[in-house]
Design brief:
seven-stranded mixed beta sheet, alpha/beta, 7 strands, binds zinc ion, binds fe (iii) ion, binds adenosine monophosphate
Length: 302
């Protein structure tokens, strides 16, 4: 038997809140796809930054839907926590009645033209959500639209969307959870669904480029039209998101190959929303390997 250890000196793995203060490893952990309460995430920008830092994320990209409203606060919080912050966005484009999510990075956050375009995008979101509430109403589900939309209307930089309706349906006891809300009411083909109107992917690429940024096709597996990637590349797409929580290893390998074949850059991230509907892993649970990050920085001239 060795020398008895004095009480309290046993090595323990930090857990719970203590882990947040454990020394961070120097290994890069790059997550370029996350959401906050500025769109449909559950964490404030401060909380997201804290969780990312605690998870050891060293480079954090914030990509709320159609808004950059969370970026200023996230930048301040990340700075304080020693996390490199990358402002970004996930813009919803429409192609053949399908949503195509386009990630933007390295653009001018203050571009008047881009901010005006995002304002139009959010106005279309509000109009669509209102129409979906009307459909629910016609089916005997009476929800107080104005109180649901209030936080989104009071702050014109926030993006409302179907998840807001889904949560109202849960809160009203009409469905058990958000998944059921989509399956019964809100998904294409269901009674409350209203198709989206909006910009084409090509228009979105142009708007982000005009603001000095680069564009990446988010989670291509969910777009389910790989044959669109080559024409998108012709139209100016810079990158595809090969690393994503909805991609298994085979899908990631396939999209890495597509990127190589088409000369596209590669992005990646967890798509963390702090809810159970998006993968379930924390910030950094899906990460972009460093060489791809270095290529993005080189393209962005950083
Ligand atoms: P919207 O932009 O208003 O059309 O809402 C799209 C968002 O709804 C997506 O980004 C997801 O967060 C969420 N969503 C879509 N389909 C589902 C589903 N089946 N279950 C849970 N959330 C979903
Ligand atoms: Zn989302
Ligand atoms: Fe998305
Ligand atoms: Fe996302």
């Amino acid at each position: 038997p060795g020398i008895p250890r004095a009480a309290g000196t046993a090595r323990r793995r930090p857990s719970g809140p203590a882990r947040a203060f454990a020394p961070r490893s120097s290994r890069p952990l790059i997550d370029l796809h996350t959401h906050t309460t500025a769109s449909d995430g559950r964490c404030s920008p401060d909380e997201l930054a804290a969780r990312a830092a605690a998870a050891g994320v060293t480079v954090l990209g914030l990509t709320d839907h159609d808004t950059v409203a969370g970026c200023a606060a996230a930048a301040v919080a990340c700075e304080r926590l020693g996390v490199a912050f990358v402002p970004g966005i996930e813009i919803t484009a429409v192609a053949g009645e399908r949503d195509v999510h386009v990630l933007g990075y390295f653009f001018d956050l203050h571009s008047a033209a881009l901010l005006a375009f995002l304002g139009e995008q959010r106005a279309r979101r509000v109009a669509r959500v209102r129409e979906m509430f009307e459909r629910l109403d016609a089916h005997g589900i009476h929800l107080d639209v104005e109180s649901v939309l209030k936080p989104g209307l009071e702050d014109s930089t926030r993006s409302v969307g179907r998840p807001w309706i889904a949560r109202a349906l849960v809160a009203g006891g009409f469905v058990r959870d958000v998944s059921e809300a989509f399956d019964r009411w809100l998904s294409p083909g269901r009674p409350a669904f209203v198709p989206r109107e909006g910009a084409t992917p090509e228009e979105v690429f142009a708007r982000v480029h005009e603001a000095g940024g680069i564009v990446s096709l988010a989670h291509p597996i969910l777009v389910r039209h790989d044959q669109w990637i080559a024409p998108f590349a012709e139209a100016g797409l810079d990158a595809i998101e090969a690393y994503h929580s909805d991609h298994d290893d085979a899908a990631t390998a396939r999209y890495l190959q597509v990127a190589a074949d088409l000369g596209l850059l590669v992005t990646g991230g967890s798509d963390y929303h702090a809810d159970d509907e998006h993968g379930g892993g924390g910030p950094g649970s899906v990460a972009l390997p460093r060489p791809h990050w270095d290529r993005l920085l080189a393209r962005a001239g950083r």
